[in-house]
Every structure is written in structure tokens, then in C-alpha cells.
Design goal:
alpha+beta, five-stranded mixed beta sheet, disordered N terminus
Length: 251
């Protein structure tokens, strides 16, 4: 992307980015072609905005003004429309993310099972606060609202891969392995890739690792196992009856 940007931010907290002078971009013609491919998947092109923003992050490391402008131009919507979406969803970042986004669930169940302590210990261990990145650019730490894995609480995610039944020590061991450049595998899922690689997958470009590792554990399957042992099954649902004829309007 080149030329003078006309995008103006109306948000006070833009992640420390100067939207009036930040014109640098890593977006290439190939990236723009991939954005058009994403838009072509949908009957309504605007529906492509979410994966397009993930693709921007896979290249830029965050949502940039140039990325916002590119999405707007391809979808024929305003930059304000794109920015409104990018600032609504927490998975879209307005400042650079490290190689590994470490999210610790601090919602009710995970919190009481130790999530708050894990998060506090990681902040001290990494010497960073919430939504901050280590000086080496390896780890960005964030507390998350519900990872939808309460049966494995407390849960931590690295680039959206599950790390179940964590303790402060196990969580610190994971981030140490990541910072050392060692291969780390999720407890339920694939080998951990970088955050930018994960963003490309979320944009709809598979990396061939979807079937790596287990996707469900005994805790999640307990109800199914009990139902099978007891011979339980869902009741048959009768077919819907034909709609009755509408009553003739009163004269």
C-alpha cells in the first residue's frame, strides 16, 4: 500500500499507534489477492471482514491503518466501518503481538481453581502486565474471559491452543519452553505455531494440522460415556405438522 492515508481514528485508546502518521505496511500484492479470495467466498462480501482482519494480522502482527484501508477498499465499505469491527472484538490487536499470545482464563470457575494465581505468577515471571509483551518479543500475556473449557479448569491458551489443568509452575514451564525456541504441544490440540501462523489459519488458509492431537478429553466425554453405558438416547422428535390453514378474515 502506498500514498497518503486518509484514515482518521476517533478512538482515544488505539493501542499506542499513531493513526495519523503510521503509513508503514507489510501488505503485498499477494496479500491483497488473498484478501480478494476471502471476499469471494461469501454471497455478501462484507461477511468476509472478520477473516480478512485475521489475514492482516498474520502479515502485520496487528491491525494497521493500511490493513483497515485495504479491507475497506476491497469490500467497498468505509474505513470507519472496518475500524468499528476491529475495535469491538478483542482478538483483533491494535499494537504488536509477540510470537506467542498466552491467554489465561480468569472467569469464575478458572479463577477459583487457580487461574488468578497463574496469571499473577506469569506477570511476575515475565515481568509484564496484562496485554503487554516481553522485551524479546516472544510472549504477549493477556487475561481472557472464558476459554469454554470449564471441565479442564484452570485453562491457559497459547495462540488459541488449549493447555488444560494448569498450575503456576506448569504455566511458567510452558512460557519458558516457548521463549527458548523449543517445540511445545498443546494438551488438546496441535503443536504450537506462532501467533501470525495461527492468524493465517483463522483467515481460512489451513496449515494441515487440524487433526493433530486429541480434541476432546475424558472430562468432556463423561456424559456421553454414561449415556452409552445406560443405553440412554434422545427421544424421537415427531415431524412438524403441516401449518393449519389461516382462518378466513372476519367480515
Amino acid at each position: 500500500m502506498s500514498g497518503e492515508s486518509h484514515f482518521t481514528s476517533h478512538f482515544d485508546n488505539s493501542g499506542g499507534i499513531d493513526f495519523t502518521s503510521d503509513h508503514e505496511t507489510n501488505l503485498t500484492d499477494e496479500t491483497l489477492d488473498e484478501m480478494r479470495q476471502i471476499a469471494a467466498r461469501y454471497p455478501q462480501p462484507r461477511s468476509a471482514l472478520l477473516p480478512m482482519l485475521h489475514l492482516v494480522q498474520s502479515v502485520e502482527g496487528r491491525v494497521t491503518p493500511a490493513g483497515i484501508e485495504a479491507c475497506a477498499a476491497i469490500l467497498e465499505i468505509s474505513a470507519a466501518d472496518v475500524s468499528g469491527v476491529a475495535t469491538f472484538y478483542t482478538m483483533y490487536k491494535r499494537k504488536p503481538v509477540g510470537d506467542y499470545h498466552v491467554g489465561v482464563c480468569t472467569t469464575a470457575l478458572c479463577a477459583v481453581m487457580g487461574g488468578d494465581q497463574i496469571f499473577a505468577d506469569l506477570q511476575e515471571h515475565l515481568d509484564i502486565g496484562n496485554d503487554e509483551t516481553t522485551e524479546d518479543g516472544k510472549i504477549t500475556l493477556e487475561h481472557l474471559e472464558c476459554n469454554a473449557a470449564c471441565d479442564f479448569a484452570p485453562v491457559m491458551m497459547v495462540n488459541w491452543e488449549f493447555f488444560d489443568n494448569q498450575t503456576p509452575d506448569s504455566a511458567k514451564a510452558v512460557v519458558d519452553e516457548l521463549r527458548a525456541g523449543n517445540e511445545v504441544t498443546a494438551t488438546r490440540g496441535a503443536r504450537v505455531c506462532t501467533w501470525r501462523q495461527a492468524e493465517r489459519v483463522l483467515a481460512g488458509f489451513p496449515d494441515g494440522r487440524a487433526d493433530e492431537g486429541p480434541t476432546a478429553g475424558p472430562e468432556s466425554l463423561l456424559g456421553l460415556r454414561i449415556a452409552q453405558e445406560q443405553g440412554w438416547q434422545a427421544p424421537d422428535v415427531p415431524p412438524p405438522s403441516a401449518d393449519p390453514e389461516p382462518e378466513e378474515e372476519a367480515k
